[in-house]
Design a protein that fits this description.
single chain, about 240 residues, mainly alpha, 8 helices, globular
């Protein structure tokens, strides 16, 4: 009897997974749109004066301490929400996603606010292509990426730490060819992490197939995680190519 049920169940699971991932990307796109609107508003009306110079608030935002607080805040927020995901309401998880998107919009206004808009658009398209490729790989590959995920996370944490140290101590900041290679290492690491995150979302879905609300919460939380990965890819590409 199981021989007849298994194909139907498998097809139902595959369709459910497809809808789950499409929903995750839908939430991510909505959050990205909010981040873009916030970035445009802050970049043009808050962090700049009418003369095109940094405002007092803009000066505050570019301080190394702000980047450090943002990094710590992101780690705490994701850790807290991830731990309490089962007990949180769906509405609360959505508030987390869109609040995070708004904060990321402010961050984007800083890293792209003083770059030629055409260059920003080109780098955004590069980031979109890279994100799409590695996320698709994570979705389709049969290889278990857990084996390399730990190593990639350690590499990326080291990359972030060195970036922060370079902001506090400019003598430690890498430039020129060394800086490009350093950024390339960080880019490879975050791309690999993005593929693993996508694959991990599939595993999480299979653990929630009998709980529609939990699946939706996982989808929203996954959208926030993927948005963070995309913004990291975009930020690194900005560092690599915005001066070219």
């Amino acid at each position: 009897m199981n021989d007849f049920r298994t194909p139907a169940l498998s097809a139902e699971m595959d369709l459910g997974l497809r809808n789950f991932m499409l929903g995750t990307y839908k939430y991510m796109m909505m959050a990205m749109a909010l981040a873009a609107v916030v970035a445009y508003g802050f970049g043009n009306y808050v962090i700049k004066t009418p003369a095109g110079q940094l405002s007092g608030f803009g000066q505050l935002l570019i301080q190394p301490g702000t980047a450090l607080l943002l990094t710590i805040g992101i780690m705490v927020a994701f850790g807290g929400v991830g731990t309490k995901l089962h007990s949180m309401s769906l509405q609360a998880v959505k508030v987390f996603l869109f609040s995070f998107a708004a904060v990321m919009g402010v961050w984007l206004s800083i890293i792209a606010g003083f770059v030629n808009p055409m260059i920003s658009v080109k780098i955004f398209l590069m980031a979109t292509s890279a994100f799409g490729a590695v996320s698709l790989f994570g979705y389709t590959t049969k290889k278990n990426l857990n084996a390399i995920a730990g190593f990639l996370i350690m590499v990326f944490v080291g990359f972030v730490v060195m970036k922060l140290l370079g902001m506090f101590f400019p003598s430690l900041a890498l430039a020129g060819t060394a800086g490009f290679i350093f950024n390339l290492v960080g880019l490879v690491a975050i791309c690999g992490i993005t593929a693993w995150e996508t694959q991990n979302l599939k595993r999480m879905y299979y653990g929630t197939v009998h709980d529609g609300e939990l699946a939706e919460k996982v989808s929203v939380y996954g959208a926030a995680s993927l948005l963070l990965s995309f913004i990291n890819i975009f930020s690194i590409l900005m560092s690599m190519f915005s001066d070219n």
